[in-house]
Amino acid sequence: MIRRPVRVSPRIFAMLLCLTAVVGFVLTMFAPSPILAAGLEKASHWRQGQKQQPRYAPTWDSLDRRPLPRWYDEAKFGIFMHWGVFSVPSYGSEWFWWSWKGAKNQDFIDFMKNNYPPGFSYADFAPMFKAEWYNPLQWAEVLQASGAKYVVLTSKHHEGFTNWPSKYSWNWNSMDNGPHRDLVGELQMAIRNNSDLHFGLYYSLFEWFHPLYLKDKENKWATQEYVKEVGLAELYELVNAYHPEVVWSDGDWEAPYTYWNSTNFLAWLYNDSPVKDTVVTNDRWGSGMSCHHGGYYTCSDRYDPGVLQKHKWENCMTIDKKSWGFRREATLADYLDMDDLVKILAETVSCGGNLLMNIGPTHDGRIVPIFEERLRNMGKWLGVNGDAIYATKPWRAQNDTREPGVWYTSKGDNVYAIALDWPTSGNLTLGVPKTSAATMVTMLGWKTPLKWAAVSGGGITIQMPMAAPSQLPCQWAWVIQMKGVV
């Protein structure tokens, strides 16, 4: 279609010119002065800069000011899982490769000589890591039954094998080798779709025998080829792909945090990552950083200070006393029993910490019965006594002055005394609580109130229920709930 030109009469054209002049005059009168205009422009740029400015700068001074997400402190109890190629030999510990080829421990040399052909390399274990019995839904059910509120799975240990199809670990990952599955991704989906647990990942910053890492080490950390090509690349890949709410760093101790670019990664994690509002991190981000910087402190493996700490901390420990990974040679005496585990949980939470309790699945993907039994029994205990654990705060005293086997927690106007041992006399006398006319005493899981009496000079004597062991609400430790005490 051809459009004809629009014709404007001279009179209308003149009127349009006048109107344009009037509008220009009005705009000129009300326009800001050049100085004001410059100020407005500067303010606009400042506001834009504020939006673009990271909330947390890549410095420890800034990063350490980030509040710990509330969910983590309230969770109190999580499950650690160490799983990898080391689960195939399942001998000694998850440090098998280093013990064999790094430390050249004779026990490990003999183990290989007696059980594998000459020339067998550690890489030859990877195809045997098949995980053929790995059922993420079954894992999620067991983990949920444990009473834990979060789980931390090993995504990569010091051996370098990644349990996800990392594009930065060619043929040394669970998709190209071994199971030919995305082990991390499958558990992440099972956990998030079938439980209320928070999903987290352990990641080793270093690898014992990676040539790029060894080259940087030889250069005394003046180069960062490993960090750029592998370490940071895998961390960003993990966070963007699986959205872990715990990033549990390890393997940091040989090099300073500047080598690892830890503060830059954490600034991105807290400011721009898909989990920036909910993610929590630990303190293992460079030599000398542990117990000084990070979201919460781990300080050392099996850290259990026994006294209240000023900073949020976590006790990462193992049911198997000697190893984080599964061991075929473990005996019954090597495993902590329920009395041990409840005691550690009570001590840890009373002193302001979280307990991260570790199990080691087998190379074929099973949680063996002894681990499952411990997990389910922890869940049963927490099903009765969870009020004394979840979302609690440390009380003014952590353990009792008269009864050393009693640990305290608090929530609102409730004070909980976790008694690890049943008193032989049938009466539990506590030296710390101060009673009042409003004092009420009950036992979690027991329907009727308990009788009590004030102790001269302070304290309280509580008459425990007269019942057979099978009638008690639990078997291992008993929680006394007190209202109206100070």
UniProtKB/TrEMBL annotation:
Limits of the Glycoside hydrolase family 29 N-terminal domain: 50-387
Swiss-Prot/TrEMBL catalytic activity: a neolactoside IV(2)-alpha-Fuc-nLc4Cer(d18:1(4E)) + H2O = a neolactoside nLc4Cer(d18:1(4E)) + L-fucose; a neolactoside IV(2)-alpha-Fuc-nLc4Cer(d18:0) + H2O = a neolactoside nLc4Cer(d18:0) + L-fucose
Pfam families: Alpha_L_fucos, Fucosidase_C
Organism: Branchiostoma lanceolatum (Common lancelet)
Enzyme class at the top of the EC tree: hydrolase
Single Gene Ontology MF annotation: alpha-L-fucosidase activity
Name recorded for this polypeptide: alpha-L-fucosidase
Similarity field: Belongs to the glycosyl hydrolase 29 family.
Alpha-L-fucosidase C-terminal domain mapped to chain residues: 398-482
Role, per record: Alpha-L-fucosidase is responsible for hydrolyzing the alpha-1,6-linked fucose joined to the reducing-end N-acetylglucosamine of the carbohydrate moieties of glycoproteins.
InterPro entries linked to this entry: FUC_metazoa-typ, Fucosidase_C, GH, Glyco_hydro_29, Glyco_hydro_29_CS, Glyco_hydro_29_N, Glyco_hydro_b
